[in-house]
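Hello,

Our lab assistant flagged a job as stuck in the queue for most of the afternoon. It eventually completed. Since we weren't sure the result was trustworthy after the delay, we are filing this so someone can double-check. Below is the sequence as submitted and the structure that was eventually returned. Let us know if re-running is recommended.
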Amino acid sequence: MVLSHTTHPGNIGAAARAMKTMGLGRLYLINPRHFPDPQATAMAAGADDILQDAVVCSSIDEALQGVTFTVAMTARLRDISIAVQTPREAMPQVLQQAQTAAVALLFGTEMSGLTNEEMGKAQLGVNIPANPEFSSLNIAAAVQVMAYELSAAAQSFVSALPELQPAPHERVEGLYAHLEKTLFEIGFFTTQNPARLMQRLRRLFARTRLEDEEINILRGILTVATEYNARLKRRYQEEHKDV
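-- returned structure --
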């Protein structure tokens, strides 16, 4: 479980308690406002070990290092760049991916949830069905729902190793950075909205679940494209230097 920019320490403690009741123990915190904190310990109500072992990170990329499948919790169903499922639909896929590598369930801050940038780091969105007139869940309650659905799905889960071996988060993010840099260098963004286009490309690659070798191939293509573009520029400059 990864909690991003949690403002109230009591929610961290309550989330730890929710995790322990369902047999989960790995808690990551991205820039919590107050932690460690006595209120977190009080609300953990015996799940002190999870708080003690919690990993505090300074960025989302640090928290997701080594993760190959990230599920982002969202209350928004429109303008989301990734597919969105219910917890019950998503949990079998989470269990399958967790057989071979780390999987993260990502929760945003209490007031506004996850940012668009944070959502863009995930391969799948999950929305907890709730009363449309009062759909805001406390973060610890959301953690409890997800932990329960994960535990319930595990009871009937049939183990089968996934055919793909997806690349970890940091390798995929490296590809996105390389892709964006290359598109700038070859002038592709002159007629495009860079942020919107990169969001669409993230959505495309999130569906494909890239493997390490595929990332190497794509980055090799980007490198060659950049070098070829640089040669064309030099040739043009040489041919027109006296004009």
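-- support follow-up --
The delay was a queue issue, not a problem with the job. The result is valid. The first helix runs from residue 9 to 21. The chain has ten helices and seven strands.
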